[in-house]
Specification:
about 55% helix, about 280 residues, single chain, globular
């Protein structure tokens, strides 16, 4: 008898990173568990490989329909935030990393995650995604080149991230545009996800000057009646703005160790509803 709970965490990790949606990831894992009951002895022989294959194929199927929904989405689409422990390996779960994964094609994302994050061999990955091993190596090379080119933008240590987050919060709440600008990289980009259900920029804001002004204005407008605290989401300290008991906005940052290179703001209430109140 297979102990399905033994595999739940790893399978959810695959599905969440593929889909960027907690509920969908949980549904995919549950669907995979249901399929176990209809499977033959192959499952018993190698449950990890079999379950991973089912989960990945379900994710790839879901991404086909997700592509259409995201093309119709109002403004930038950001992954749903995930509560985690502070000690989790943030390099492969941070919001910035999740946003980076969204720039890969579904098959590139699948191959990269399976090989580089979950340590499957080239042969195992080939079997899971139903491609030749040589093809998988080519896909992986392409995906890794893209990831490596972007990764220095969020290569800062946990301590550097915390220090910049402290300065970021102080500058935003004080409306200190100049101080905020000094914390931002010249090519910083700010994504705001309101999903058409909350006030948000419908296009990314780019550049230190424009981003500092945008954030200062956003903080000023939202300061009335709001309280601010912090929460560990996707392995990193995240700024949380509440109106009463309701979480209104979360803000995460990425850093290269010296400056803030990316800011991800989620205001879509559907993506915030599952975050437990403090």
């Amino acid at each position: 008898m297979i102990d399905l709970e033994e595999h739940r965490r790893a399978l959810f990790g695959i599905a969440y990173r593929m889909l960027g949606d907690r509920a969908e990831a949980e549904d995919v894992v549950q669907d995979a568990f249901i399929k176990v009951h209809d499977a033959d002895a192959e499952v018993v022989a190698s449950p990890r490989a079999w379950l991973s294959t089912v989960v990945m194929r379900l994710c790839l199927d879901r991404l086909k329909s997700a592509r259409v929904r995201r093309e119709q989405y109002v403004g930038p689409w950001l992954p749903e935030p995930l509560p985690t422990e502070a000690a989790v390996e943030r390099e492969t779960i941070s919001m910035a990393f999740m946003v980076l994964l969204e720039t890969l094609s579904p098959i590139e994302r699948a191959v990269f995650l399976l090989h580089d994050v979950f340590d499957y061999t080239h042969a195992e990955v080939a079997a899971i995604v139903q491609e030749q091993e040589a093809t998988v190596r080519q896909i992986l090379h392409r995906a890794k080149a893209h990831v490596v080119a972007r990764r220095p933008r969020f290569s800062g240590t946990r301590e550097q991230h915390a220090l910049l987050m402290d300065g970021f919060i102080q500058a935003c709440l004080a409306g200190d545009v100049e101080g905020l600008g000094r914390l931002l990289a010249a090519d910083v980009v700010c994504y705001t996800d309101g999903g058409g259900k909350a006030v948000a920029a419908t296009k990314p804001v780019r550049g230190a000057s424009d981003t500092a002004k945008f954030l200062s204005g956003l903080a000023r407008k939202g300061a009335g009646g709001a309280t601010f605290d912090r929460m560990v989401l996707n392995g990193e300290i995240t700024l949380v703005a509440r109106v009463g008991a309701r979480i209104d906005t979360i803000v995460s940052i990425a850093t290269d160790g010296e400056r803030i290179t990316e800011i991800d703001i989620i205001r879509n209430p559907d993506k915030l509803a599952r975050l437990a109140p403090s």
